[in-house]
Amino acid sequence: xxxxxxxxNHSQSSTGSDSQQAVEVSMHTVHxxxxxxxxxxxxxxxxxxxxxxxxxxxxGHAAAMAQEVGANGVLIGIDADSRAIERAxxxxxxxxxxxxxxxxxxxxxxxxxxKVLGTLKIQWxxxxxxxxxxxxxxxxVSGRGFTFxxxxxxxxxxxxxxxxxxLTAKEIVNDWQEENIADIIYGYGGxxxxxxxxxxxxxxxxxxxxxxxxxxxxxxxxxxxxxYRHGKTNxxxxxxxxxxxxxxxELGAAKEALDKVLKYIKPGGRVGVITFHxxxxxxxxxxxxxxxxxxxxxxxTKKPIAPTNEEVRENKRARSSKLRVxxxx
Length: 329
Prior knowledge:
By secondary structure, this protein is an alpha/beta fold. Helices cover 44% and strands 14% of the residues. It folds into 2 domains: 6-138 and 250-328, Rossmann fold (3-Layer(aba) Sandwich), CATH 3.40.50; 165-248, Putative methyltransferase TM0872, insert domain (DNA polymerase, domain 1, Orthogonal Bundle), CATH 1.10.150.
């Protein structure tokens, strides 16, 4: 079940004590939006315009976009995670909320942006941005199994609204067939040792249920060759990526959101997408190309925009980021 909630300067929200504690901790973390200047330069956001940040995160891009539209503009921010909504509200309210009555922070999956915009009676957008990467807050303090640094439950859901029917990483590693586990680890993670890892997972779960990140990392680490085990990156990185993509249907959600948002973009308006791995980038590249071939508009970025060396030095998360922009005719 998708939950949609608007938080602005006229409304407040309530969360449980555990959620509130996590929010309070994450208020002190610093989320640095990637490719920020490139986004602002290429989206051509007009004063008084209406813009969408489809992946709100910590609100870094949203804050800059709000400054661009000014006091007479409208900014809609969407995120599936209520904690992200709270963080963004906290980060925005001291400088922006009182100056931007048209600020709406909505809790929902961005694939449901048509429902969000319909609720707000928004018919047209001047620009839309989707940052498909996880924020540092989600990685470090979500408590849902995205990081290797902490012992966390194997959830990996981007939304904190988890019901009985919600797919989790725990369900995949404990219930799925070995072949299916191997397929997603290879297909969504590009993991060369996917079959060895899947076999090790299935063998381990016969001894005890796999419920935590630490358990899974240990299983994966033991399954791969020694040289791979001691490489530059954690040997579980690609497997964790694959599980996260599968749990959240990230590629399906991205395509659905982009197909929907184009219908709301005004002629001359632009859509920007920031990706962090090849599967996402390939999807966006193909979709933009198809839109152009169908006569719907023009690809602004013939090649994706990459971060500068300076930005990468200051923010390692930016290293693999790419920005593509499309203009509606």
